[in-house]
Amino acid sequence: MRILSGIQPSGTLHIGNYFGMMLPAIELQERGEAYYFIADYHSMTSLFDAAERRRNSLDVALDFLACGLDPQKSVFFRQSDLPEVCELTWILGTLTPMGLLERAHSYKDKTAKGISPNFGLFAYPVLMAADILLYDSQVVPVGKDQKQHVEMTRDIAIKFNLTYGETFVVPDSEIRESVATVPGLDGQKMSKSYGNTIDLFGEEKAVRKKIMSIVMDSRTPQEPKPDADRNLAIQLLKLVAPAEVATDFEHRLREGGLGYGDLKKALFEHYWNYFAPHRAKRAELAANLDYVNSVLQQGAERARATAGKVLERARRACGLG
Ligand code: ADP
Ligand code: TRP
What we know:
By secondary structure, the protein is mainly alpha-helical.
């Protein structure tokens, strides 16, 4: 089974990225041949600072490796090390109806938020289709917000196959329902663009302060809370604490007697402990950047072996060369 996913180096990674995409991707590397990449071309649609892109790309590499991406098992690479993907983007773009792109939620959301649209932002799903199809990917683990992009990839692959003959594998998304949308500190979807994140590798004091400042209601600790399962801290605790601990907190909140301050303190402690091994690994990697760079370089070479074949197949199918 060929698995592929990417993550943009457009900001600091948060626990929504981790539980929604990185952890499922890391677990999947045991079940097939996984290709994971840093989507730096994608980040160009919204980030216009070269030094920041370079820094973020390295951070994503460190974060992903620290969380358990194993370069012996998976092919891990930087998207722009394979400019082949841009050629495939052009080829696929000529078969992509304007209407399909106009219906993209993420494009509509971003322009509605006042981001001034450029051609790249509009064409982004075609680049993502090229990312996926270039490696004959079958399974694409992503958070729920990316589902539509994978569906568009399917449409584009099917259209190409009908037009030029069977060429591309038609992929499926894999979305883990329990973490399809991790809520942020304000209860909306956790997202770096909403400023409501808990950073994956945040600084102790800063994260503690953020968690302790989660706004809750004004009910007293003694009051029973029948809606305990909808409490934001409980929902986040379920991600970072052992199941029986989270259930116990939920029970105590429901029955009454547990104060919100104590609940938030527990959330911080469990968050901090959950990521302790990852933090140690990250520090080790950060002290050995030559290793990290060599992983990406070897990843690019392995990715190129697959991409070269698929691109050649596509070029031949559509009468190029
Ligand atoms: P952001 O919304 O912070 O900009 P990205 O769009 O870069 O995050 O997402 C990178 C990956 O992480 C995608 O697969 C996305 O679906 C997943 N992801 C992001 N935020 C969440 C979330 N709150 N819950 C679950 N998955 C998420
Ligand atoms: N668009 C994805 C995001 O913003 C990142 C991405 C780029 C991706 N290409 C991909 C994810 C291919 C899966 C497969 O999160």
